[in-house]
């Protein structure tokens, strides 16, 4: 009975378009050497990575996750950032933008499984690699079983695990896998790896546990495959295209990208497969999107699929998002974490999304892919420039033949005839492969009620719609295609559109054609149910959307997106994004009406049996100019008379940091509880009168600086120290920022009296701990050395108050304006003066407000654009309604456009922009500053 119920629920899920198992009832997750299984049903896991902490707008989580599902992904992989939730030991926040319960509910509603990755270490180019900065002050090596660290990470796991546990597939939720740690391949502390898993089990995690191995895969998983610390399903990370976006023409500089089989009893799992890149060389993310564009996806993803037989994929990233606040690990990334992903930071779909959709729909529709073994290729090309590799499903005999260039770097186009010994007979068929492309061709496949002998077009999807099979096949525009289908007797073939030649011999119907726009062939009779064959190009295939309804699947083209569909009576309702133009739907004959969102779309029936109509263009969006800027200079901390008596005395003589201070007292900001953003220091000394120079060293992370005043006189600035990330455990990080000498100008010292050195240090974020050596992670931030001759200095420090419960610990640093609320929308700035373009050294705030009333029912993401060339002499922190949405400046990175996400942005009200500009010298401020849109569609969410 339970089995029957399970089967029924799986069926219901399939009908409703959700992957089996993503439903309210409890399910069982098992696996064998081929694939994961839910309630015994095989599953090809197709996941893309998403970081909720990089999209601080929970209502937009749904948008992104629905876009994942609409591309054919059935899972989302999610890191949970410990740092994002915990400002200090024992304090955790899971509300508002940190509401991960809501996130997991949203994933389930979107029909996605979840790979839950709570670390404790996550890397992800996030500050501290996800470890809160307070962990820097905990004794004991991070990412080990040292007792101090253990107590800290257990605290996190016991908070996050129960939330994840209640959303597991085994309890009717979406979480299908639990990922312990992250690329933990250097510091091989088995007890630590084991303890993470023991804690998870104790907290109720009962889905399979995985881990993502890096680089030198085998090292960790094979050595420890069965010992303490071993996980059930280890996977491998692969980034074959590297992160050098400046040269997007490179082709697999880091290898073939073939995911290794780690064990015989588990599926091959591509735990993180490159789907974008960090922008190490500041080339801009469009270049990263090019580096990892459709050509790369076609070649590397398909090659991996057919060569390794992987059935578990997680693509990093599906949507990158924003390093808002102080979320970035500064040595690798700037504000945008767009990643060159398929979905941009502003949630726009790109040609990479189309390629994911073509491949994703294929993996979802063609079930035999979930269980394959390698076979000697049955298809031989007669052109040596081309080569084939193949797998087959041992139960159905279905063949999957990969056709690609023998030289993977080849860029020319080659034609060949394939001599193909398919399960249903031998055939000679034409193929054409462009350089840096690959095709997965299928033979011996029960395509719905049809028998596909073979095709040199690729299968995108097929569905039983209104009693007939509708199949979408595609190939490169202009290339030849041949599709052979088997029939009991001669079928009737009607070419409804396009140029397709049909020939029936023996029991085979052979169709020959050139891939061009969208050809339509209706095949009836022949002892099978009717087939509508849609033969497209890459472009026309990508125009199709597939969605499930209670009355079976539907196909839609002409919309920008289909989020969900339902049929009631004669009406097909779509929740979809549209931008105007023709729309076509393939639904059962009972469907006669189309409703998109709240609008009826008049339709007529076509000879293909589909319905066509037209959607309305969205209303244009008008954005106000940003005028009436007001400004106020700050940095009273620089003045000698400033009252710092309530600041924290910086008087420690010891630190647990593995980096000893060069001078005492210890001035490391973290040691005094100031972990994020700017910190101020004030050092008092009684001058002998002979001091000529102040020596200061600060460590800030890449892109950081510090500014120095003596008795209110500005002395200048210097670049802060940076981690030297050699990636090599034997090379320690470089905490030495080099010289920071500041001459004492004549007449500024006050001999025998109190003199004050004021220093503003930018803490750009914390190093990660990628190689688990603890040294990089525990590199201090703030001043690491200070002297003025030999004169004793007594120091005080001030940083972020860390008291914003809404925006969280990473939103603010310790600028005077931040401590006083100048970034907040409610701050009364009426008395501020009209802004001038010229800035003095120090910190100047600029504020303006604007009203928006964007058209309702549309999605038009808004951005803030800095025109002109930024100066390296200033850096700008950008606050939208109090939220720190990014940093701009000549030394900060190539970014000029900043996303103002809906939710933080009031699309129907007044918004405040506050800019905190830190200038190192007199300089003309940033500008012109404008609002713009990244896109505009009608939407029904
Ligand atoms: C991987 C790591 C991810 C991310 C990625 C590069 O090594 O596991 O967290 O850092 O590299 O973006």
UniProtKB/TrEMBL annotation:
Protein known as: beta-galactosidase
UniProt source species: Nonomuraea jabiensis
Top-level taxonomic group: Bacteria
Record's family? Belongs to the glycosyl hydrolase 35 family.
Q: Where is the Beta-galactosidase domain?
A: 368-544
Keywords recorded for this protein, A-Z: Glycoprotein, Glycosidase, Hydrolase, Signal
Q: Which residues form the signal peptide?
A: 1-24
Documented EC number(s): 3.2.1.23
Group of enzyme by EC: hydrolase
For region Disordered, the annotated ranges are 722-742
């Amino acid at each position: 009975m339970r089995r029957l119920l399970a089967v029924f629920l799986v069926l219901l899920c399939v009908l409703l378009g959700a992957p089996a198992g993503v439903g309210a009832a409890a399910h069982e997750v098992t696996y064998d050497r081929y694939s994961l299984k839910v309630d015994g049903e095989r599953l090809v896991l197709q996941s893309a990575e998403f970081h909720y902490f990089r999209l601080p707008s929970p209502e937009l989580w749904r948008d992104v996750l629905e876009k994942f599902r609409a591309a054919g992904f059935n899972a989302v992989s999610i890191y949970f950032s410990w740092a994002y939730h915990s400002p200090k030991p024992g304090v955790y926040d899971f509300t508002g933008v940190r509401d991960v319960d809501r996130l997991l509910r949203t994933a389930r509603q979107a029909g996605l499984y979840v790979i839950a990755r709570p670390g404790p270490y996550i890397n992800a180019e996030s500050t501290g690699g996800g470890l809160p900065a307070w962990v820097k002050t905990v004794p004991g090596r991070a990412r080990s079983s040292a007792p101090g660290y253990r107590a800290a990470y257990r605290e996190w796991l016991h908070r996050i695990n129960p939330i994840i546990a209640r959303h597991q597939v085994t309890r009717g939720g979406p979480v299908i896998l639990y990922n312990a740690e992250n690329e933990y391949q250097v510091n091989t502390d088995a007890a630590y790896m084991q303890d993470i898993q023991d804690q998870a089990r104790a907290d109720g995690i009962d889905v399979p546990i995985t881990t993502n191995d890096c680089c030198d895969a085998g090292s960790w998983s094979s050595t420890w495959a069965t010992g303490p610390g071993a996980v059930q399903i280890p996977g491998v990370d692969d980034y074959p295209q590297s992160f050098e976006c400046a040269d997007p023409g490179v082709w697999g500089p880091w290898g073939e990208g073939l995911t290794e089989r780690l064990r015989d009893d588990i599926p091959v799992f591509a735990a993180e497969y490159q789907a974008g890149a960090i922008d190490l060389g500041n080339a801009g993310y469009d270049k990263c999107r090019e580096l990892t564009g459709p050509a790369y996806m076609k070649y590397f993803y398909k090659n991996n699929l057919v060569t390794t037989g992987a059935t578990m994929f997680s693509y990093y990233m599906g949507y990158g998002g924003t390093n808002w606040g102080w979320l970035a690990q500064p040595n690798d990334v700037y504000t945008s974490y767009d990643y060159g992903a398929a979905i941009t930071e502003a949630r726009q779909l790109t040609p990479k999304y189309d390629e994911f959709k073509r491949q994703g729909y294929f993996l979802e529709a063609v079930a035999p892919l979930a269980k394959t073994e390698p076979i000697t290729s049955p298809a031989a090309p007669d052109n040596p420039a081309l080569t084939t590799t193949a797998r087959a499903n041992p139960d159905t005999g279905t063949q999957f033949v990969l056709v690609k260039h023998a030289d993977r770097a080849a860029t020319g186009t080659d034609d060949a005839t394939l001599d193909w010994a398919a399960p249903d007979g031998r055939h000679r068929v034409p193929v054409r492969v462009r350089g840096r492309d690959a095709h997965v061709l299928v033979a011996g496949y029960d395509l719905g009620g049809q028998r596909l002998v073979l095709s040199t077009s690729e299968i995108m999807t097929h569905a039983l719609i209104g009693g007939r099979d509708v199949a979408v096949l595609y190939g490169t525009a202009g290339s030849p295609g041949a599709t052979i289908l088997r029939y009991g007797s001669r079928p009737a073939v009607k070419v409804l559109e396009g140029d397709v030649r049909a020939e029936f011999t023996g029991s085979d119907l052979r169709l020959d054609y050139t891939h061009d726009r969208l050809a339509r062939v209706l095949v009836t009779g022949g002892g099978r149910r009717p087939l509508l064959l849609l033969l497209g190009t890459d472009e026309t295939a990508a125009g199709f959307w597939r969605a499930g309804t209670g009355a079976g699947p539907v196909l839609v083209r002409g919309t920008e997106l289909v989020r969900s569909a339902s049929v009631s009576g004669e009406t097909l309702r779509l929740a979809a994004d549209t931008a105007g133009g023709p729309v076509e739907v393939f639904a059962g004959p009972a469907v006669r009406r189309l409703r998109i969102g709240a609008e009826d779309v008049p339709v007529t029936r076509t000879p293909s049996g589909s319905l066509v109509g037209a959607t309305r263009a969205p209303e244009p969006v008008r954005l106000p100019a940003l005028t009436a800027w007001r400004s106020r200079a700050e940095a009273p901390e620089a003045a000698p008379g400033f009252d710092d008596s309530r600041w924290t005395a910086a008087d420690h003589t010891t630190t647990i940091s593995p980096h000893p201070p060069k001078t005492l007292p210890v001035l490391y900001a973290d040691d005094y509880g100031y972990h994020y953003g700017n910190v101020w220091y004030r050092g008092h000394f009684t001058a002998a009168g002979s001091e000529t120079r102040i020596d200061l060293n600060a460590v800030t992370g890449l892109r950081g600086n510090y500014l120095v005043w003596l008795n209110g006189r500005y002395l200048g600035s210097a670049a802060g120290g940076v981690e030297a990330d050699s990636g090599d455990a034997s090379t320690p990080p470089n905490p030495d920022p080099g010289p920071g000498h500041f001459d004492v100008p004549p007449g500024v010292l006050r001999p025998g009296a109190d003199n004050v050195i004021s220093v503003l240090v930018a803490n750009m974020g914390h190093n990660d701990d990628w190689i688990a050596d603890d040294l990089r992670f525990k590199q201090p931030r703030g001043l690491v050395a200070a002297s003025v001759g030999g004169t004793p200095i007594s120091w005080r420090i001030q940083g972020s108050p860390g008291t914003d419960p809404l925006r969280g610990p990473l939103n603010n640093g310790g600028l005077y304006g931040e401590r006083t609320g100048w970034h907040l929308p409610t701050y009364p700035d009426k008395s501020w003066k009209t802004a001038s373009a010229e800035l003095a050294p120090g910190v100047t705030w600029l504020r303006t407000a604007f009203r928006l009333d964007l058209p309702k029912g549309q999605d038009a993401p808004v951005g803030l654009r800095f025109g002109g060339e930024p100066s390296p002499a200033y850096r700008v922190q950008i606050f939208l309604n109090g939220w720190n949405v990014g940093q701009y400046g000549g030394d900060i990175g190539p970014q000029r456009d900043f996303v103002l996400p809906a939710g933080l942005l009031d699309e129907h009200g007044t918004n405040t922009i506050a800019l905190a500009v830190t200038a190192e010298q007199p300089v003309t401020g940033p500008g012109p500053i404008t609002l713009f849109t990244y896109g505009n569609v009608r939407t029904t969410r």
